[in-house]
């Protein structure tokens, strides 16, 4: 068997495929050491297994917007969920029904919920299709082992903040998709001009970290609710939220539990799912999140139980009828090309700006971190191989995702699972894309995954994202307060944009005041511990614009000067040397072991390693990519490093 695999690897390496993907043994002048066809296939499948949960989770979250479905709710008509307009005991007029009444009415409207079921099936296809297209494209055009799909976190912001549950927000689903579409076009321009790195570096480091933590808490909050989670928390008229876990018969009109808290079998099934995922990750079982989701889902597929997703009612019968088809290709009916370009509202532009900011941190940070992990970073340029085509591909896929009806497409940190298995070329991403293509024909299975099966995944992913809180500089108030407001306001206001704006505003006001006082006092009035403040990262540019200008422009400048256009560029000598030093030898195990603490991974989506003066190494985690608690870098060492660099520049 080994001989057959070896012959296949050799044949592929010597073909045009091997040359295109720079496999070892190919005719490419700069092959990537230790890469084989079989290893890339295995790595691509590992990435798919750890990413596959997004198919059901993303469709469940975004379908909460209601999509293009229309509910006949009328706030002034009591027969359509509204409130009767009359006179109160005090002589005033009774208020009309609000968003909560609309959600309660529409959730019991059979025609509307049936339409949402179709939207969810559409989004299952849209999610799988975009994961297929984006992963394959980034593999072919940038030759990077990255899996891409509609991203977590940004989909929750899209649904619950921008559009609102069942369209109760300030802009509609159609207009929100238009914002995503335009965002992709803006990203395309920024990618061509090489400005994405500049924008990412302009944000204070602590707010970048807090953004990831805040989104993690936001995802956990969603996963604990009933609409897209396990129902552990419910609304409470006195404390806003309270302990839930009760059956539907104990809910009042506002969704609060009147009795029977923590007695719902579905809630306990979700808790069991979280326990299973945690134990599997603890023992480093690949695909732990997917296994946990499938376990809870399969148990919920049996009819006649207290946790069934197919109750004996018209809605349950409709779901079960579609589920029994098993293999079926669902044609998108309600989410294809439905953008509405109403650009005359402030909410539209706020959503667009927030999409831009969060996606810059998310996608750019993930790509740089994964490039560092795989050994593609060039220390002389601070860039990685294939960065420009990767960013352009991402931008185009963001706009294409809006056409399909889903939120921003982004690179996934779960790509680290494939890199752990030895994936170092675009063949890994192409394999992941092929797996997502196959999943398109199993939409009846993915549409039957209930929210209490995906809720544990949201809680678990949220816990991983909060680990980077240890990177916040709590020693200096000018850094800690803006970061704390950022991470606290996101879940508490149910709005990522408010958290970002609050943190940035606090940073400007606090640090701006300190700066003014220092200048007015001639430098005599300064905080006693100002030396503990995180420094602003300096911009450095090489003689041909390396580190600032986009790689394609650097190559053009070098060519015009009669120099080697590939040196220190996207596929330059510096990048090759870094890769060769980092990649394992062909006879070595696939998993890289780059520091003394094994089986951990340095991962910070929101602080790309090229932004740090002393980037740490990365190792592997078994079920995706997990932030390491051991990555803390001394703030004083960080400041001294930059200070010495500045003295050297002077």
Any key phrases for this structure?
single chain, 650 residues, mainly alpha, 3 domains, two-stranded antiparallel sheet, 24 helices, 53% helix, 3% strand, globular
SSE blueprint and pairings:
Blueprint: H1 2-13, H2 16-20, H3 37-51, H4 53-63, H5 99-107, H6 110-142, E1 148-150, H7 154-163, H8 173-193, H9 196-201, H10 205-224, E2 233-236, E3 240-243, H11 265-282, H12 288-300, H13 314-323, H14 346-374, E4 377-378, E5 383-384, H15 387-404, E6 409-411, H16 415-420, H17 426-439, H18 443-446, H19 451-465, H20 477-492, H21 496-520, H22 551-560, H23 573-582, H24 635-649
Antiparallel strand pairs: 1-6, 2-3, 4-5
Biased composition (Basic and acidic residues): 564-580, 593-607
Main location: membrane
Biased composition (Polar residues): 616-627
